[in-house]
Amino acid sequence: MIRRTEEKDIPAVMEVIENARADLKARGIPQWQNGYPNADSIRQDIKDDASWLMEEDGQIVGTCCIRLERDPNYTYIENGAWLNDEDYAVIHRIAVLVSTRGHGYAGMFFRHAGKLALEGGYRNLRADTHDLNLSMQKALQKEGFVPCGIVYMADGAPRIGFQKLLQESD
To answer: pTM to 2 decimals?
Structure first.
């Protein structure tokens, strides 16, 4: 079940994030190794009605941020181009417990983001990931996202930008 994150969920959400952070490090991926995301990021997402979590049998097994607004980090893109310049929703900070991989939770988050985007009048969904994070790239492409080029985070870190053109059936 996907539901909005509440303040009381932050410790469990941070466990999911720390689990993902440790997995990224073990796989040699420098993403999320600088203390971000942290509890303050999640707290702000909750205030902005942008934080979501996945519960399975009462346990929080995944988290993500879905924003129905443009991301300033996506203004400039190099070595490619966005599929269009229409308004879009963004999915960020997606993580699932390593022990639950293969259950399709990431795909469920992507589909939920698509549903929220369409309900908000957006026909595009964007995301980004590290070039070494092959599992997230695969998950995005499995859900119909297309790699569009390189975007840069506020700290200058490069990421592959992905976009999906949403259909009413999404």
So the answer is: 0.94
